[in-house]
Amino acid sequence: MTLIGSDIAHAATVLKSGGTVGIPTETVYGLAGNGLKKSAITRIFEIKNRPFFDPLILHIGNQDQVRDLVLEIPAPLQDLIDAFWPGPLTVLLPKSDRVPDLVTSGLPRVAIRMPNQPLTLSLLQQLDFPLAAPSANPFGYVSPTRAHHVADQLGDQVDYILDGGPCEIGVESTIVGMEENQVVVYRKGGLPIEEIEKIVGIVRVNSTSSSQPDAPGMLMQHYAPRTPVKIAKDWPGPWEPRVAFLGWQTYHAAIPLANQLLLSPGGSLPEAAYHLFDYLRQMDQWNLDVILTEWLPDEGLGRAINDKLKRATATTA
Ligand code: TXA
Ligand code: MG
Questions:
Q1: For 16, 98, 115, 217, which has the most beta carbons within 10 A of its beta carbon?
Q2: Where are the beta strands (DSSP E) in the chain?
């Protein structure tokens, strides 16, 4: 049985000996291992059942660690790092030889972020290597935002789970990089695009589906529970009793109340993000025929939430 606890020293010992640890971050829980050690990286791919073409993010505990891992940092990305680290921002930078090709799936750039979660920051600061950490869910499933989500799905395979409580933000980090001197957003996430644009001006958003995705967060069917997810206004019925509704602010009149959850009755997008993956997981356990949902306002964190819902409703990869 996997141990769950808040023992940072134990987590560090496991990681130093090449093991894997579920780690809390402010976005979602990660499945972490030594990001410079091939056996630990391989184990992460195996546990997640993740294809090797889908690269991993390296997590660091202080900015000095970046220098060894990359060849250069373009000025706009440095400005974003200065503004938002530690925080829900992942930056794609040209990788140095220190980063194993396994981490980047052979791509020329490496994804790096400094998470803003006290236990994990302290853990990272005790290690002399970065932690490779994808979200701690089986490939394609909803990301975990509570320690028990990790235990429920990967519990017998990870060596330890560091419990930092519920993730404050609840959706993954926003991924950015540069193309032809412009900042590009590759995954809409916990740092709203509006915040990024305040620092670097207008950005390009390139998070659409592709058969050769630069970031498989871009894969169309992703973040999906096992129960099919559909948009309520397109649903022809029947309405009960085997239909669930994941709403924004108000309940659906045609569906039994016991089958409904609201992301934020008060209309707060951060609150909705905080609940999103936990509610999708809860509803999946109800074993109904379909989970109906609705779009949120497409602004701030609503853009990331809508992107997750769009992918959850997609039926093919
Ligand atoms: O919030 C987060 O970013 C969480 C926490 C644990 O930090 N991590 C996370 O990792 O969401 P993961 O592996 O589930 O998603 C990382 C995304 C993937 O879509 C991957 O394809 C993309 O980042 N990615 C990683 N390295 C990349 C690279 N070198 N080039 C392009 N995309 C990359
Ligand atoms: Mg993931």
A1: 115
A2: 3-5, 21-23, 30-34, 57-59, 89-94, 109-113, 131-132, 160-162, 174-179, 182-187, 204-205, 229-231, 243-247, 260-262, 290-293
Which ligand has the minimum distance to the alpha carbon of residue 219? 1
Q: What is the pLDDT of residues 62-118, one digit of tens each?
A: 999 999 999 999 999 999 999 999 999 999 999 999 999 999 999 999 999 999 999
- What kind of architecture, by CATH, is found in domain 4-169? Alpha-Beta Complex (3.90)
Could you tell me the fold of the domain covering 229-313?
Answer: Rossmann fold (3.40.50)
In this prediction, residue 300 has a pLDDT band, given cuts at 50, 70 and 90, of: very high
Distance CA 293, CA 309 (A): 8
Give tens-digit pLDDT for 1-39. 569 999 999 999 999 999 999 999 999 999 999 999 999
Residue 30 · residue 133 · CB < 8 Å:
yes
Ligand nearest to the CA of 216: 1
Q: What is the largest CA-CA distance in the chain?
A: 58
- Give the mean model confidence (pLDDT) for residues 294-315: 94
Residue 112 alpha carbon to ligand 1 centre in Å: 9
Measured in Å, residue 52 CA sits from the centre of ligand 2 at 13
Ligand 1 probe mutation, 20, 47, 53, 90, most atoms within 8 A of CB:
90
Residues 146 and 64: their CA atoms lie apart, in Å, by 30
Return the pLDDT at 240. Answer: 81
Name which residue sits closest to atom 15 of ligand 1, judged by CA: 134
Instruction: Give residue 212's pLDDT.
Output: 40
Domain ranges of the chain: 4-169, 229-313
